[in-house]
DNA sequence: TCACAGTTTAGAATCGTTCTAAACTATTGA
DNA sequence: TCAATAGTTTAGAACGATTCTAAACTGTGA
């Protein structure tokens, strides 16, 4: 269980570029977190799960920094916050148009492609208000 | 600013019956809270807002009891919990099929009738999972 | 009226999250 | 290359919503 850099150099370089583009100074911590978040497929994390993950990877990042970073990434449009559970916040690496299944018991989110689902008949909001976003959460449980 | 019982007797009697029906012993506190919640139109409350309200009405109910009661009412099907805000839980006296506008800044929920809105194209959930409910939140802001 | 199961309560505890202020570091310009 | 500095990280305290605890209280049925 060493460092296993593999193509880490290239990845890190790409990640740093991406952070710079977002106006974020590419610090060690942000690069580490971004690499975990954006390397593969779409992911759903909580501050704690990401902190555990980065810690298990042998990297020391404080929980406060994980929180800061998640919010900064969200503000930069790299992440999207998903509110489905009163107990904790989820962050989604898929920032495109899509919705979610949510398995409450297990705290698991599953993407539903935006093209698949459609919401019709949303009334005009009361005067003076404009629609920012329409969120659909399909709450599921084990049969 | 007295007691203002008006038709309070009748209301209280109805409320007690309703609670009994739900399998809840009609204590002073539960009757008070139920009267506030169910007397008029549909309402959206948080534990704190309801506690403030009952307190201002000159009735002494502890915050813990408000929390307990909201959960008991929810379990009994008298209320529905609405998850739209990471910071606090809302409870809705409208337990029928409907959705919500949510004005984040002000913490305001507005009902959208269930007949108005329709969600199409929800994929089958992954094997072993069944749909419990589909929640739609239309996030709005002041124009 | 009594006994008891169910309920309420104050206050402590918990949990996720945010804040604070001191130490650290990426960047820039000399 | 190196300092100056603005931005970042961090441990730990603080916070706010919620839950827990265990002791006091109260509907209810006999």
If you had to describe this structure to a student in words, what would you say it looks like?
The structure is a homodimer of 143-residue chains. In chain A, α3 (47-56) crosses α4. Chain A has 4 helices and 7 strands. In chain A, β2 (80-85) and β3 (88-92) form a beta hairpin. Chain A is globular and about 50 Å long. The model of chain A is unreliable at 1-6 (pLDDT under 50). Chain A is 34% helix and 29% strand. The first copy, chain A, has 143 residues and is of the alpha+beta class. Chain A has a 3-stranded antiparallel sheet. The first copy, chain A, has a 3-stranded mixed sheet with strand order 5-4-7, with no helix packed on it. Chain A starts with 7 loop residues before the first helix and ends with a strand. Chain A binds chain B through residues 81, 83-86, 88-89, 101, 103, 110, 112, 116-123, 125-126, 128-143, and chain B through 81, 83-86, 88-89, 101, 103, 110, 112, 116-123, 125-126, 128-143. Chain A binds a DNA duplex (30 and 30 nucleotides) through α2 and α4.
In short:
2 copies of one chain form a homodimer. Chain A is an alpha+beta fold and 143 residues long.
Count all strands of chain A and give the number. Answer: 7
**Percent in helix of chain A:** 25-40%
- The portion of residues forming beta strands of chain A comes to 25-35%
**Rg result of chain A:** 17 Å
Largest sheet of chain A: 3 strands, antiparallel
Query: Alpha-carbon distance between the termini of chain A?
Result: 39 Å
Individual helix count of chain A: 4
Major sheet strand order of chain A: 1-3-2
The shape of chain A, in one word, is globular
The oligomeric status of these chains comes to: homodimer
What order do the SSEs of chain A take from the amino end to the carboxyl end, as H and E? Answer: HHEHHEEEEEE
Average residue pLDDT of chain A: 93
Helices and strands of chain A: which structural class?
A: alpha+beta
| Biggest protein-protein contact in the assembly | A-B, 37 and 37 residues
Which residue ranges of chain A are poorly predicted, with pLDDT under 50 across at least 5 consecutive positions? 1-6
